[in-house]
Write a structure and sequence with these properties.
Structural class: alpha/beta
InterPro entries: HAD-like_sf, HAD-SF_hydro_IIB, HAD_sf, OTSB-like, Trehalose_PPase
Number of strands: 12
CATH class of the largest domain: Alpha Beta
Number of domains: 2
EC number: 3.1.3.12
Cofactor: Mg(2+)
Organism: Pseudorhizobium tarimense
Oligomer: single chain
Strand content: 15-25%
CATH topology of the largest domain: Rossmann fold
Order of helices and strands: HEHEHEEEHEEHEEHEHEEH
Function: Removes the phosphate from trehalose 6-phosphate to produce free trehalose.
Distance between the termini: 30 Å
CATH architecture of the largest domain: 3-Layer(aba) Sandwich
Largest sheet: 8 strands, mixed
Shape: globular
């Protein structure tokens, strides 16, 4: 059976809201779809600093339930480094593309990681020293990448971008400057989130499925472009659809969590019904 086409789930003619239809689609056709989820701003609410985010207690379990129902075809695609992302969802572990796709853990547990170059280590040290002169600027060491957050000092955006452009040159040609929500990041240039999604779709259990990608930032646009080209479903967490390739929008990370909870609840109800029929 061919999977239904949910790509226009936000149309006025559709009697179901986008995430009502997402729940329905995944519950009814779990072997047809692969789910790719950003973390910050998509699964988890943004916070003033990366260390202040709060993971809702039931979120890891809901992700695990949905992943198992999809036969393992659920991956997290994030700007975070793999070890950090793993800490968020303990004790569960999922396929993860970290550092915007520069490093990946496959479904079988195989790791494809990058290490920081000597030049990048020098850049990180220099940025940490310089940040002492920039109140409100937070430097985040991501291992093979480094980010400068200005959420607490938005007035320094232009100045910080110029500084990060300078340090990008010091890091070398193997790196690129990634712009995101209130952050500039020097990261490996070898991959992006779209490339990570494509790589997963060549591997079991993702291979042969249509992708659904959900994200909230400009870094997720690469996923949306890939998904749209594969007749999948792209959803941006945003108030409106301005400036995005995504075909649907959802207003908040809380609604994304509600959808996952709804899927997990429906899965549990289906299991109870099947057990009831066997007894």
């Amino acid at each position: 059976m061919l999977p239904s086409d949910p790509s226009h789930a936000g149309d006025d003619q559709d009697p179901l809201q986008p995430f009502d239809r997402l729940v329905k689609t995944l519950v009814e056709e779990p072997d047809q779809w692969a789910l790719f989820l950003d973390i910050d701003g998509t699964l988890i609410d943004l916070a003033p600093s990366p260390d202040e985010i709060v993971v809702p207690q039931d979120l890891p379990g809901h992700l695990s339930s949905v992943s198992q129902y999809l036969g393992g075809a659920l991956a997290l695609v994030t700007g975070r480094a793999l070890p950090y992302a793993d800490e968020l969802f303990q004790p569960h572990q999922f396929p993860i593309a970290g550092l915007h796709g520069s490093e990946r853990r496959l479904a079988d547990g195989t790791l494809d990681c990058v290490t920081a170059t000597e030049a990048l280590e020098e850049v990180k040290n220099a940025l940490c020293v310089a940040a002492g002169r920039w109140p409100g600027i937070l430097i985040e060491d991501k291992g093979a990448a480094v980010a400068a957050h200005y959420r607490q000092a938005p007035e320094r955006r232009a100045e910080l971008e110029e500084v990060m452009q300078y340090y990008l040159l010091q890091a070398g040609n193997d790196f690129t400057l990634q712009r995101g929500k209130m952050v500039f990041e020097i990261r490996p240039a070898r991959a992006d989130k779209g490339g990570a999604l494509e790589a997963y779709l060549t591997e079991p259990p993702f291979k042969g499925r249509r992708p659904i990608a959900i994200g909230d930032d400009v870094t997720d646009e690469a996923m949306f472009k890939v998904v749209n080209g594969m007749n999948g479903r792209s959803i941006r967490v945003a108030k409106n659809s301005d400036g995005t390739e995504a075909r649907s929008v959802i207003a908040s990370a809380a609604l994304v969590r509600d959808a996952l909870a709804g899927i997990a609840e429906q899965i549990a109800q289906n299991d109870l019904s099947q057990k009831g029929r066997r007894t």
